[in-house]
Specification:
Elements: E1 2-5, E2 8-11, H1 12-41, E3 49-52, H2 53-70, E4 85-88, H3 90-99
Antiparallel strand pairs: 1-2, 3-4
Length: 100
């Protein structure tokens, strides 16, 4: 998709993707700050479930993919079968992995 802006044609799909990724990242920062406030107030609840550790790591890394690839950094994960499962809160575990 293309549109006219500032007297020239620009492609909106890559721009929209960057805007969505940036908005998602900003929302995650705001949620992290709210989570910290809940922890300090003693109002945090965990919602653990059985998870595939490989899928969990892949989800967390896919969230960071744009940010790290822009800086020339490559992060990969490699699990040998059978993939271990864990019992954890996926949101909290991703927060820890992303903040490492």
């Amino acid at each position: 998709m293309r549109c006219w802006a500032n007297t020239r044609w620009i492609t909106t799909a890559p721009t929209a993707r960057i805007s969505i990724n940036s908005g998602t990242f900003l929302l995650s920062i705001i949620n992290d700050l709210l989570d910290l406030a809940r922890i300090e107030a003693g109002n945090t609840t965990l919602e653990p479930e059985v998870l595939s550790s490989a899928d969990l790591i892949a989800d967390c890394l896919s969230f960071l993919d744009q940010k790290i690839s822009d800086k020339g950094i490559r992060v990969t994960s490699n699990f040998s079968p059978p993939t271990p499962q864990c019992y954890a809160d996926p949101v909290r575990i991703c927060q820890v992995i992303i903040n490492i």
